[in-house]
Design a protein that fits this description.
Shape: flat
Number of strands: 2
Low-confidence stretches: none
Mean pLDDT: 83
Strand order of the largest sheet: 1-2
Structural class: mainly alpha
Helix content: over 70%
Number of helices: 13
Radius of gyration: 24 Å
């Protein structure tokens, strides 16, 4: 007769076997192939040619490729603003506020809208004969520009649209984390005379620190791999000023069939996310972490 511990091990192994096989087949194995392709010159059809680190060197030396990489920093800064705004509003809406459920629904609603629809909506909003300029004309402001053709400002506006869409997700996550803190702790802090800033930094922040870190990692990952909104709003038609690395990567792999270069860009994106994650871990490190 099989002992209970053995039966338990067999059951755990059986339940884990299928997910692990699927994970290996559809995640890690393709990643290894992409890593191999990143050292090749290959159009997906002809024979591969081993080119060592040429694809990686091209990413950091070719201005046409490196500029979209720099454009990702607009979205990284936007991700930090998005997190700060979401945390601020979540803290406010976690306490007694009139119509707070209406505000929660209003802030979360943009997250439910498809990214392509959001891009189309704001492309009409910022165009030369769009809604924004019509509003400015009401206040007698003339000679208004086509906002998406202004270098620097077009990337700022695109990052702003991403903040508008995704901030509601962070808001809901933070509200859930803040409301998991016992009300008795808040009451005890108020009895002791703690003000709102002390309650936030001494109670709320330590309790939801891991949720903040998780959201920040997800936001930075989304920032470096952003695609739908900038491509829908501009399509890179205004030079390469609004190209992001994902737009360029997909164009290189499909239109120009440079599979090796596109694969190298995938691992550069992975490297950026890992570096930012390590920096975040160091910034959020506690004394008892090791």
């Amino acid at each position: 007769m099989i002992r209970y511990k053995t039966q338990r091990r067999i059951m755990i192994t059986g339940f884990l076997f299928v997910p692990l096989v699927l994970l290996l087949l559809f995640t890690y194995l393709p990643s290894l192939f992409v890593f191999y392709f990143s050292f090749q010159q290959w159009n997906g059809i002809s024979d591969m040619e081993f080119v060592k680190f040429q694809n990686y060197v091209a990413i950091f030396t070719d201005p046409e490729i490196f500029k979209p990489l720099l454009n990702s920093f607009y979205y990284m800064v936007g991700a930090v603003v998005q997190m700060a705004l979401g945390l601020f509003l979540a803290t406010l809406l976690s306490f007694k506020v009139v119509l707070k459920n209406v505000f929660k629904g209003t802030f979360f609603f943009p997250y439910l809208i498809n990214s392509v629809a959001v891009g189309l909506m704001f492309s009409f909003f910022f165009r030369s004969d769009g809604v924004l300029n019509s509003i400015l004309h009401i206040f007698a402001i003339r000679n208004t520009p086509d906002w998406l053709r202004l270098n620097f400002w077009n990337n700022v506006l695109l990052a702003g649209v991403s903040i508008w869409k995704y901030m509601g997700f962070n808001l809901v996550m933070f509200i859930g984390a803040i409301q998991s803190i016992s009300k008795e702790i808040y009451e005890a802090a108020e009895i002791d005379g703690a003000n709102k800033f002390q309650i936030f930094f001494k109670i709320i922040y330590p309790a939801i620190r891991n949720i903040i870190l998780l959201n920040l990692i997800l936001a930075i990952k989304g920032a470096v791999s952003v695609y739908e909104i900038p491509y829908t709003m501009t399509g890179g038609t205004f030079g390469t000023s609004t190209f992001v690395i994902k737009t360029l990567q997909i164009g290189i792999s499909t239109r120009y069939r440079q599979v090796g270069l596109a694969s190298a860009m995938s691992f550069v994106l992975l490297g950026i996310v890992l570096v930012v994650t390590v920096i975040q871990r160091l910034m959020f490190k506690e004394k008892n972490d090791f």
